[in-house]
């Protein structure tokens, strides 16, 4: 059986104590901020990973520059999902000089930012369809 390595290039074999992985050609990075749209961005990224459309990546790893996360202008673009217009994930990538990505903002996809962690599976399903319609 071929050993898979983590999408974040941390060197782990991902089989027991490493990162999640799949066979997707590019990665998705999520905001996970302290509001409903932050949590929705994380849940959306997880759903994209589970559908094998993207491999879940680690935004924190990119922020600290400790691993080879984020594609470098080759192959399919990564997807960055920010919850709101502050755009923290995009700022992380830009600060690290990683510009080979597509970027979406949950609030620009029709979800209102609220000071809670509430969301519905219907919202995730709707967002998955909207991303598909955009070719993402």
Explain what the structure shows:
The chain is α/β, with parallel strands linked by helices. It contains 4 helices and 4 strands, in the order βαβαβαβα. Strands 2-1-3-4 form a 4-stranded parallel β-sheet, sandwiched between helices. Helix 1 crosses helix 4. It is globular and about 35 Å long.
Features:
single chain, alpha/beta, 136 residues, four-stranded parallel beta sheet
- Structural domains: how many: 1
**Poorly predicted tracts of residues:** 1-5, 12-16
Q: Give the total of beta strands.
A: 4
Radius of gyration: 14 Å
> How are strands sequenced across the largest beta sheet?
2-1-3-4
Main structural class: alpha/beta
Mean pLDDT: 87
The helix fraction, in percent, is 25-40%
Whole-Å distance between the termini?
A: 30 Å
Q: Please tell me what the overall shape is.
A: globular
Strand content: 5-15%
Largest sheet: 4 strands, parallel
Helix run count: 4
Order of helices and strands: EHEHEHEH
SSE arrangement:
Layout: E1 27-30, H1 36-50, E2 55-56, H2 59-64, E3 78-82, H3 88-95, E4 101-105, H4 121-133
Parallel strand pairs: 1-2, 1-3, 3-4
Helix pairs in contact: 1-4
Short summary of the structure?
Helix content is 31%, strand content 12%.
